[in-house]
Amino acid sequence: MPYLPSGFPDGAWLPDVVVDLGRLFAARGFELSLVGGPVRDLFLGRTSPDLDFTTDASPDQIIATVSGWAEAHWDIGRDFGTIGLRKGGDTIEVTTYRAEAYDATSRKPQVNFGTDLGEDLVRRDFTVNAMALKLPSFELVDPHGGVKDLHLRLLRTPATPEESFSDDPLRMMRAARFVSQLRMEVAPEVRVAMTEMARRVEIVSAERVREELVKLICGADPSAGIDLLVESGLAEIMLPEVPALKLTDDEHHRHKDVYQHSLKVLEQACSLETDAEGPVPGPDFVLRFAALMHDVGKPKTRRFEPGGAVSFRHHDVVGAKQTRRRMQALRFDKATISAVCLLVELHMRFYGYGDQGWSDSAVRRYVTDAGDQLQRLHRLTRSDVTTRNRKKAARLDHAYDDLEARIAELAEREQLERIRPHLDGEQIMSVLGIPPGPEVGRAYKFLLEHRMEHGPVPEEQAVQILREWAVTQP
């Protein structure tokens, strides 16, 4: 049964496996404590998805203790003192007390196992994560004031920030992540250390940086987290396209700079996400990251026009290429890269619709080019309207309402989500009496273009159109 330790807010609970594991270790003469995020989340009145424990038992002693009790265990983290195990529906990690530090030029920590819970807690990242519940008694151990800092929404480090960030430079990014996820503020000394030590993050692997960035972007206040990365100088190392926006004026002077505009677009995109049953369930990394990166091509495309105006022609295409290179450097998977870059490339496509309207052909192309990113593109485009001019904002909003209505109307008639040529490859070869080859590809492309321009036609008419086209070809 779920268990709620006394003194914690309603809504937080722990599975009974926590008590069982504590009794198991105590019977063997070992200490065991629930530690880190699960303890922090209890004070926030929520249930943590993770169960992390720390103990004075060595990795071999951990395995000996859980053998026969756990349904499975694995020692992939054995070198770092961590043994994973599964009991029922719970996945658990138990780690030997430890102290670890990074060599100044190495990405790999030097691991030393300890025997004291206090020594283990002081090496953790922030005071709000340096709390432990001793098991099975549920005695709270909070030597660094984590509960107080949690109530103050303040991020401090148990040791000095310099020591903490030297041990693991990724903790500087984690600070920005907690600012986003937990709506916390970093203590002044933490901000100073982040600024002075920003370049230390260069030794951290791209994969670890990527994981922190994803968690930050998917937090409750991603703009605040990004702003901390930029102000501290960390973004210059791992996401330099974003701070570069601060040097570029907004051509409409709606914001101090394009950077502030981009943060506003990010905030508005978050507000347009749907619930789990909707087309874009939040938090949606693809939509949010596209919102952040949508204008990164502006610094490279800025031009001063006669009369003092500033233009950014083709910044959408340039920005998509920059975004692709950055995401590849951070080792994102191909599908995520393609989705984000497509949104960046298409985010300007809508503009002009309200002034001149679009033909059915243009609407078909918009839907086809967006593909399975159409619902995200709807939200990104709407989020990109940040003007303070209410009339202009209302006009753009109405224009996009009209475009979505046009899309829905055409979709009812034409199945826009599956636009194909009038005839497939087999039919083309049969009608023209030709074998597989380049000629079939050209005919296919012609029929797809005709479908885009004129909509669907009956098969008999499509055959006639194909034959008429064929006689004009070499």
Give the secondary structure arrangement, pairings included:
Blueprint: H1 16-27, E1 32-35, H2 37-43, E2 51-55, H3 59-66, E3 72-77, E4 82-87, E5 90-96, E6 98-102, E7 109-113, H4 117-122, E8 132-134, E9 139-141, H5 146-152, E10 154-155, H6 161-167, H7 170-182, E11 185-186, H8 188-196, H9 206-217, H10 222-232, H11 235-238, H12 258-271, H13 285-293, H14 298-301, E12 303-304, E13 310-311, H15 315-329, H16 334-346, H17 353-356, H18 360-370, H19 374-383, H20 390-414, H21 425-432, H22 438-454, H23 459-470
Parallel strand pairs: 2-5, 10-11
Antiparallel strand pairs: 1-2, 1-8, 3-4, 4-5, 6-7, 8-9, 12-13
Helix pairs in contact: 7-9, 7-10, 10-12, 12-13, 12-19, 13-16, 13-19, 15-16, 18-20
Task: Write up this protein.
- The protein is an alpha+beta fold and 474 residues long.
- It folds into 4 domains: 16-151, Beta Polymerase, domain 2; 153-239, Hydrophobic Seed Protein, CATH 1.10.110; 272-417, no CATH class; 420-470, no CATH class.
- The chain is built from 23 helices and 13 strands.
- The protein has helices spanning 16-27, 37-43, 59-66, 117-122, 146-152, 161-167, 170-182, 188-196, 206-217, 222-232, 235-238, 258-271, 285-293, 298-301, 315-329, 334-346, 353-356, 360-370, 374-383, 390-414, 425-432, 438-454, 459-470, and strands at residues 32-35, 51-55, 72-77, 82-87, 90-96, 98-102, 109-113, 132-134, 139-141, 154-155, 185-186, 303-304, 310-311.
- The strands form 4 sheets. A 7-stranded mixed beta sheet has the order 3-4-5-2-1-8-9.
- A hairpin with a 2-residue loop joins strand 4 and strand 5 (90-96).
- Helix 12 crosses helix 19 (374-383).
- The chain is elongated and about 90 Å long.
- It starts with 15 loop residues before the first helix and ends with a helix.
- The model has no long low-confidence stretch (mean pLDDT 88).
- Its cofactor is Mg(2+).
- Residues 254-415 form the HD/PDEase domain.
- One of its GO terms (molecular function) is poly(A) RNA polymerase activity.
